[in-house]
From TrEMBL:
InterPro entries found in the cross-reference section: D-isomer_DH_CS (IPR029753), D-isomer_DH_NAD-bd (IPR006140), D-LDH-like (IPR058205), NAD(P)-bd_dom_sf (IPR036291)
A Gene Ontology molecular function term of the record: NAD binding
Keyword NAD: yes
Protein name per the record: D-isomer specific 2-hydroxyacid dehydrogenase NAD-binding domain-containing protein
Keywords: NAD, Oxidoreductase
Pfam family, one: 2-Hacid_dh_C
Organism: marine sediment metagenome
The D-isomer specific 2-hydroxyacid dehydrogenase NAD-binding domain, residue ranges: 6-153
PROSITE patterns: D_2_HYDROXYACID_DH_2, D_2_HYDROXYACID_DH_3
Family: Belongs to the D-isomer specific 2-hydroxyacid dehydrogenase family.
Length: 189
């Protein structure tokens, strides 16, 4: 046990949620029971009073104060490489980064360098910037022991596939019958 890296108590950690959409709110609700300090940055979220147990902060505050950063942001022109050399410099030493959203949110070279330098303790990545799974081996991140990569498969279960098929069919039906889909991604959600 002397060779095991120190483990921190969950209740002493600050978890930073990048974006506060549906998925991020569910993550926050699950984390709430662990008595963590939960902070979030979402410039478009407007229902803060409903989540008074979550602290809404600026992006710089989230980067400066988070022990773990969990990314739930859509990828667009504003968020491309949101995690980059400059944002990593602002992070706490020993931060962990989790990305289950989109690979293009992270500059992989900057992440690799941050991990190699020790600034970032590790990363859990369900996505990489490479679009094709065949390109995943080209990422320098796959060679690091403190990086877990699940190539867009952390969602997978037989039940999830079935639910996806049902929701897709319902969405197509609603779009064809009412002209509006059930599930729509809007700026700010």
């Amino acid at each position: 046990y002397e060779k095991i890296k120190p483990i921190r108590r969950l209740s002493k950690l600050t978890i930073g949620l990048l974006s506060f959409g549906n998925i991020s709110r569910r993550v926050a609700e699950k984390l709430r029971g662990f008595n963590l300090n939960i902070i979030t940055y979402d410039p478009y979220f407007s229902n803060e009073e409903k989540y008074n147990w979550v602290k809404f902060v600026t992006l710089n505050e989230l980067l400066n104060n988070s022990d773990v950063i969990s990314i739930h942001t859509p990828l667009n022109k504003e968020t491309y490489h949101l995690i980059n050399k400059d944002s990593i410099k602002k992070m706490k030493d020993g931060v962990f980064i989790i990305n289950t959203s989109r690979g293009g949110l992270i500059d992989e070279i900057a992440l690799f360098n941050g991990i190699k330098s020790g600034k970032i303790a590790g990363a859990g990545l369900d996505v990489l910037e490479y679009k094709d799974e065949i390109d995943y081996p080209k990422s320098p991140l796959v060679k690091l022991d403190n990086v877990i990569i699940t190539p867009h498969s952390s969602w997978y279960s037989e039940d999830a596939v079935y639910e996806l098929q049902i929701k897709t069919a319902e969405n197509v039906y609603k779009m064809l019958s009412e002209g509006k889909p059930l599930y729509e991604v809007k700026k700010g959600n």
